[in-house]
Amino acid sequence: LIPMFAESSVRDRSRIRLLYGRSVAAIGSLALAGLVALTAASPFIAYIWLGHVDALFVFSVAVLSVGWVVNILTVPAYLLGAALGRLRWNLVGAAVTTIVGPLAGIILGRLIGPEAIVVAAAGAIIAGGLVVLFRNTHDAGIAALPRRSDFADLKGEFRKLLQRRGRDPEAARD
Fold this sequence. Notes:
By secondary structure, the protein is mainly alpha-helical. It has eight helices and no strands.
């Protein structure tokens, strides 16, 4: 994405929004599906790894999955900042995650317990990612969140891919 964002910033700035929206829609869809599957499988994984289903393990996977979905959604904004030569917000976001996570984890862990450490870590991941997301897109002059049409475009591209492979779900309904 970095080369495409960089080229678009010079040749056709309107293309940045299209590339950004489609990449967020694609990566967000994949991340959500993958991390929902991981969360659903976490009791089984706990049983395999630990010999029993552990509630803290399952809770940790679920909470951290939420944090990572949000963080993964910010990757295109991170790459956009890098492509435009604006690394300030990427560095600030990393600093927020690095500083807030351990500090909040220590404080909340002592006050509340291990569950709070997991929530603090996920919260720091989310906070750092949101700094990158909102500041880089603001600097680029585009919306932080994809449009509905970006998801429709993604669905259309996926259907074309399936059609080329002879697996169109719509054709099976006819």
